[in-house]
Each structure stands twice: as C-alpha cells, then as structure tokens.
C-alpha cells in the first residue's frame, strides 16, 4: 500500500494547475462566438475530480516529463472526457439535468449549444495535442494524437457508449459488461496513463507493460466504483442525478454481481493494480495513491 | 476560363476513389459496435458531390502529391464535413429528415446514434491525419492536424454553426453574414485546399498566397450558391429538404441581397477566384474547373 503522505497536496496542486491550464487553453468567452465559448468554459471549468489529468501527471512523474507538457496532455484528455459528458447528458442519451452539482449544459444553455460545445471541445482536444512540443520527436507526438483518437472513437469511448445504449433493457453477462466498460471508460483512462508516460524519457518495455496493465485494471476499477456509487449514493453526495442506471434498466456491476461482490471485485482490482506497480518503486507512488483514491471516493 | 475537357472524367475518378477510400477507412459494420459502425457508413458512404475531397486532390495536383496521401487527407476532411451534417440535421439543430436523398441518420437510426456517429466520425478524421505519412516530415504532418482542427472547431466550422444558430430570427448585415460563413462553410473549404497543397513538394510563398485567396473566395462562393439553391430548388432536385432557410428565418445571401444580386456576387467571386489562379498555369486547371463546377451546380 502507498505511504504517499503528500498525495492530498500533490492532488490539489495538479487539480489547480489543470484548472488554470484549461482556462488558458479554452477560448475566452469575450471572443466570438461568445455564447459557444462561454458554454465551453461552463462545461469544462470549475468542477470534477480531474481523475484523467491526475493520471497523466502521475504517469509523467515516472518519466520525469516536463510539467507544461503534462498540462497540455492532461487538458486534451480532460476535454475529450468533458465533451463526452456534455453529449451523454443530452435528452436523447441519458437525459441528465445535473452534473458536478450544476445544471447540465443543455439545461443551462440549450440542446443545440450542448451539441456544438461537445463537438468543439473534442476538436480542441486534438488541436492541443497537435501543437507545442509534447514528446521527444514530432513522430512520437503524432503517435500520441493517434493514441488519443483510438481511445476516443468508435473502438474506444464512443463505441462503449454505443454498446451501453444498445444494452439498455438487456441482460448482459460479465464478459459483455467488461467488453463495454473497457471501451466506455477504460480506454480514456488507459490513454491518460500511456500519454503521460510518453511525455518524458523512454520507459523500459517491462515497465511500459506494467503501466499498461495497471491502466486497464484501474479503468475497470473506476467503472465498478462508479456503479457502486450510483447504487448507493444520493444525488447531493454524487453531484449528479443518482440511481439513473437502475431507472434506465442499464446493466451495472452491481446489478450483475450484487453490491457485496462488486465491492470485493473492486478490492481485487485495486490489489492487482498496486502489486503491478510495486517494482517501479518510489516513482510510482502517485499512481498507487490514485488507484486507492479511486476506491476511497466511494467506500 | 478553364478549358479542362477532362474535368468530368477526373471528377468522377476522384469521387470514385474517395468512396473506395472511405469504405476502407471506416470500420466495417461487421465489427462491434455493429450498429454504430453501420450508421457511420450509412452517413458517409454513397452520396454527396465530395467537393472537399475534389479540392484536396485538385490542390494536391499542384504539388505532385502522391494520390494515396491525398485519399487519406480527402477522407479526413470529408468525415469532418459528414459529422457536421449528421449533427446539423438533428432535431435540436436544423431538424432535417432528408439528406443526399436519404433519410437523415437520426431518422434512419435514432437521435442517440446520430449523436455518436457524428462524434466518432470527427475522431476518425483526426486519427486518419495522425497515421500514415502525409507530408515531408512528421512536424509538417502535425501542422496538418492543427490546421484541420483550427478549421473545424469553435473558431471555424462549429463556431460558424453557433453564430448561425444565434442569428435565427435576427437581421444580419453583410459583414456579419460573411463573418459567419467564413467560419461555417469557408474554413473547411479552405482547409481542404491548403491540406492538399501541403502533401507534396513545397509551394512558393506567392503561389501559396494565391491558393489561400482562391480558397477563401470559393468558400464564400459555395455558400452564396447554396443560398441560391435553397431559395430556388425544389426538394427532389436538392436531395435535401428545400426552403428550410426561409422557413427558419435564417439570414442568407438571397434574403440579404436579393436573388439577382446574390447571383451577380457569385459571378464576381468566381471571376476573382479564376484570375487568382491564372499565374499557376496548367497545374491549376482542376482548381479552376472546380470553381466553375461550384457555380454550375445551380444556375
């Protein structure tokens, strides 16, 4: 288990610098089209645990990556995440009115604006990764763009969302549920870790494989915990509308395994993630603490 | 004026190879998530004049770019265009039921699928530009990704769409209408030309400036002609629902200038675009013919 007593301070610092960087990387709301830019900032700023930026910075710590590179990568990944939230919240998808304790974008603005906000946030994410110097070579940086795209597209996050939609009202088995979540949540979590690790000195193959395994385990962990949270928490604690999964007849780890077994599975994934990182020693301390943080946020 | 008698054959060949390349670059509908992939193919294949791919290939002709590079670039630009059509057609935007003579994606499938189709097509566009070798150096290729993003995002196409939305029911003056269209349609048209021109040997600065001016003029030309088409054509000819602009109270060049002056403006833009290209000689022949084609499709 991690003994990273500085973790809360490190986490707060990364969250703060991510907020600052997002503020810089998003167009000012004084710039035309002002309403779109205001809504993009509304969607992306002032909320969220910034789990993906934390993973980018924690993985970057392993390879001594320059913090300003990590800020840019973290914002790119976070903007992909935020775009997906804005679109998922829309009436034709999850129809959620509350996100991070605030009205969702289509409620605060309107549906057409929410659609464009998501579209433009995705574009900005790829623009961020294509600019500046984020890796040792432009070729490596092109690979980062491709990696983020693969994680976000129809074989990654958007594909997972499509499988999730198709699954409403159906009984999925555990393999099918895993297939969905590896894409829906896991792919972007994994990309966060791998992109952060590409921003500094090269990793040994064995360490890269450890990191990849860790990233897959915490991707699942994140979703299992999310399902537990949704089943247990009330709306005020969660900052978004609780119990929507059950209401929508969506399969979850809780509906499939039951609450106790879902919690046991989370502990198992956590233990595996932590032991995978152990050989990395002190350099992996933030990644270990983050795995624990993902679990601790619920139980 | 162009004397490119081979133009119809060249155009058909580019359209055909674009269709083939899109078929290869889009995930097969046999691959999970099958419904999403089927809908992505439904949206992108089997229709459209492929104006942007034609511009990519015509500009690539100027610099002797390899055709397989141009296919990839053409598909990236076309997928951005198709994603924007899918989202624009949704009920919360233009609420169109017909596109390229077929039911729109949200009608043929459902709204949630249309949302994800647009999202995933945009992602695939950036993935295409980040893979393969499209320019003389990876650094130049990163610049191509950034150029497409700038043309597509909140300062480009998506921004123009937002301005268009905000303008419904308002009277715009000519400068405001131009400001909108330079973004909404012009930015991606311009990107098509500039990206094609970056795929081969370097252009002299003066030629690059000519090309940039040409691309801006035909971007406007395209929109003016679109407005004329919408005002004049019936639904069957247009392959999409006609007269929607007037119905939605949207400002157009026709509503602002009147039909005759809009047509005169189109002729003026065409003449300017053609004379701009004249110093490029024979190599600019496809670009000249395309400018004429954009006008000829209506009157």
From TrEMBL, chains A, B:
InterPro entries: Isoprenoid_synthase_dom_sf, Polyprenyl_synt, Polyprenyl_synt_CS, Prenyl_diphosphate_synthase
Chain ranges passing through the membrane: none
UniProt cofactor(s): Mg(2+)
Keywords: Isoprene biosynthesis, Magnesium, Metal-binding, Transferase
Domain of life of the native organism: Bacteria
Protein family (similarity comment): Belongs to the FPP/GGPP synthase family.
Protein name: Polyprenyl synthetase family protein
Originating species: Thauera sedimentorum
């Amino acid at each position: 288990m991690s003994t990273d007593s500085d973790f809360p301070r490190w986490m707060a610092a990364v969250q703060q610098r991510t907020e600052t960087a997002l503020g810089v990387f998003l167009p000012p709301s004084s710039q035309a089209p002002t309403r779109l830019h205001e809504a993009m900032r509304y969607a992306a700023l002032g909320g969220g645990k910034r789990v993906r930026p934390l993973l980018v910075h924690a993985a970057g710590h392993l390879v001594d990556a320059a913090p300003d590179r990590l800020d840019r990568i973290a914002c790119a990944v976070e903007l992909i995440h935020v775009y997906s939230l804005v679109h998922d919240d829309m009436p034709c998808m999850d129809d959620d009115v509350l996100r991070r304790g605030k009205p969702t974008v289509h409620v605060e603005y309107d549906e057409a604006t929410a659609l464009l906000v998501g579209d433009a946030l995705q574009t900005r994410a790829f623009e961020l990764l294509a600019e500046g110097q984020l890796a040792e070579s432009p070729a490596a940086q092109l690979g980062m763009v491709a990696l983020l795209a693969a994680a976000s597209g129809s074989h990654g996050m958007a594909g997972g969302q499509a499988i999730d939609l198709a699954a409403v009202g159906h009984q999925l088995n555990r393999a099918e549920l895993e297939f969905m979540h590896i894409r829906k949540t896991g792919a972007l979590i994994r990309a966060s870790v791998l992109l952060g690790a590409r921003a500094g000195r090269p990793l040994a193959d064995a360490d890269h494989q450890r990191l990849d395994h860790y990233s897959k385990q915490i991707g699942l962990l994140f979703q299992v915990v999310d399902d537990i949270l949704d089943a247990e928490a009330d709306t005020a604690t969660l900052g978004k509308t609780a119990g929507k999964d059950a209401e929508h007849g969506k399969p979850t780890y809780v509906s499939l395994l039951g609450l106790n077994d879902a919690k046991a599975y989370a502990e198992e994934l956590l233990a595996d993630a932590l032991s995978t990182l152990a050989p990395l020693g002190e350099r992996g301390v933030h990644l270990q603490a983050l795995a624990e943080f993902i679990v601790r946020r619920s139980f």
